Amino acid sequence: MSSTDISKLEYIDAGANLLDSMYQGIYHGKERHDPDLDIVLARAYENGVKRIISMAGTPKECEETLELIERLDKETNQSGDDEKVKVFGTVGVHPTRCAEVFAEPCSSSSGDEDEETHWRPKTEAEQTLIISQMIELINQGKKSGNVVAVGEFGLDYARLQFCPKDIQQLGFRKQLDMAIETQLPLYLHNRDSGDDLYDILLEYKDRLVASQGGEEGNIKGIVHSFDESVEVAMKLMSLGLYIGINGCSLKTPENLEIVAQIPLDKVILETDCPWCDIRPTHAGYEHLQTTFPTKKEKQYNRELAKEFCVKNRTEPSHVAQVAEVIAAVKGLKVADVVAASNRNVHRVFGELEKRR
User: Is the pTM of the predicted complex or chain greater than 0.90?
Assistant: First the structure.
């Protein structure tokens, strides 16, 4: 690793996907190396990452995320070693997964196998059962401090092939009701859907604010992996929401201009790992101070992992790079960006401490 000494700073990666198969050594269905999540988390801590929020996208993934977190907590408690990253989770359904959770496919009247899949909502009783099961999971996770938000949920109009708008909006509304009942912050997904996301949130704003404690009339939540216009950002921030920035937010000169205009007191650092790496072809790349030597996944193994990351596979330790790009485009010190992001994370998600 080449850098200014990033380990002297304390980071929070507010958006990771630790369940992803890449951390089990599987890429596009092919096994390339042994699982190395333990090494990835150890590297994160060594590079100053003290806390991670890991997202989930289906009820099953939510259960698996909490099982992973509980296992990590148990290992920490048994070893008596507190020098490890603390991982927290979310419970919710990703918009592209709403069809498989809240709906069922309709049989085609034409019988054409190539015809686009159509979906109809599950019965109200079935939807209520799904939500109640997630609420039970949330309540279980809140007792230990491990569940910190509802999500990742929202709208995604860029990938309607996975779930149509009407089913996405149904799932979004159901989960907003769930957030109100559980009094949790929102971990929001938005792709090409900013206006509808804003309109629905505005409709729910008073109930959300009341459930979350009514802090200055603002909704507590983050719009994750933001890559839309500054106008959409301003609308969402007007509701009180914070803006999650990762490598996917820093690809183009236009992206950088938008990030420069987002107030620092609304910025939250995340990686969306193992996705959203900052590549040499991206506009943000020229601002990197920290680099990580890499090997292709076919060449990588646990022994090499002591010195190398996997090429194009992002890790929580790479959150330093996101901070460096933001600092450069805003003309700020990296330490000031990191400190501001940490304050913002705590404003949204609370203390991020385990309850034993």
Answer: yes
